């Protein structure tokens, strides 16, 4: 059995690839997902608002 050490010859023409879908790229670059804040973001905003309100009341008290 002979061993070949040299690489196989390549074909003269490179293999043609399928063209890319032009509609995929813009759709992947758009923002996707839920519309509006998540429940955790709403809770966080409520907590921060309550904290600000309490600090205002604390600053007004004698």
What report would you give on this structure?
0% of the residues are buried. The protein has helices spanning 24-29, 39-60. The model has no long low-confidence stretch (mean pLDDT 83). The chain is mainly alpha-helical and 62 residues long. The longest helix has 22 residues, at 39-60.
* Mean pLDDT over the residues: 83
Between the first and last Cα atoms, what is the distance in angstroms? 100 Å
Summing up helix and strand content along with how strands pair, one would put the structural category as mainly alpha
Give the amount of beta strand, in percent: under 5%
Computed over alpha carbons, the radius of gyration is 32 Å
Helical content (DSSP H or I, runs of 4+): 40-55%
Choose one word for the global shape.
Answer: elongated
Main sheet properties: none
- Our count of helices gives 2
**Topology order in helix (H) and strand (E) letters:** HH
Report the count of strand segments: 0
Task: Give the low-confidence spans.
Answer: none
Please outline the helices and strands.
Blueprint: H1 24-29, H2 39-60
């Amino acid at each position: 059995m002979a061993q070949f050490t040299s690489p196989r010859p390549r074909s003269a023409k490179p293999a043609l690839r399928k063209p890319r879908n032009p509609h995929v790229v813009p759709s992947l670059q758009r923002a996707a997902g839920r519309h509006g804040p998540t429940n955790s973001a709403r809770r966080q905003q409520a907590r921060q608002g309550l904290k600000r309100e309490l600090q205002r009341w604390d600053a007004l008290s004698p």
